[in-house]
Amino acid sequence: MDELFKPNGDVFFTTIIIAITVGISLYADKNRLFKSKWIFNPYVIETRREYYRFLSSGFIHGGGMHLLFNMLTLFFFARHVELLIYDQIYPGLGSFIFLGIYLVAIIVSSVPAYLKYKGNPGYNALGASGGVSAIVFIFILCFPTAKLGLLFIPIPLPAFVLGLGYLFYSYYMAKKGNDNIGHEAHLFGALFGIATTIAFVPNVIPNFFRQLANWGGFF
Q1: Total structural domains within the chain
Q2: Would you call 197 exposed, middle or buried from its count of C-beta atoms within 10 A (0-12, 13-18, 19+)?
Q3: Which of 14, 175, 202, 207 is deepest in the core (most CB within 10 A)?
């Protein structure tokens, strides 16, 4: 399993996704008209039938910090997930399957907000939250006790603990709902990632609980 934490040249789409997302997001920040045409607005989708916004909104962000957070998270987790799928689950096709999961997660995670806010012209959301969240939780299910470090946390924490914190933060920010960031998509993206992993990764649930049972604690 150690080799999964050393991504190599076989990781294709992680880098491509990040490069494209950064490029489009930076351009959108300088072009308000472009950003308004790509942003997720359920009312506009409903009235104008602009369904492409389900996906396009995943490639624009609410400023530099939002973009940096999402892309750093994607960089650290997606490399391992893509390599896991590519090498061990679907050899040779794993990168394409990984790409499909990421893109579908962006779309699916926006559906609840669409149903909830399609009558509200003032609701907007943007960001790769749904896709990133799905990838993060695929990683967590496969490697729940992997120790991860964050800049603002002085000691490494197991992946499942950070995952729980990620969900609580997303729930809290979704309740506030005042920054045009698709925090709700974090929650539903996570559920999509969990469901996808259970469906396509053999024995993932028994392995998840086996790793937790063998976990040595925080120290």
Answers
A1: 1
A2: buried
A3: 14
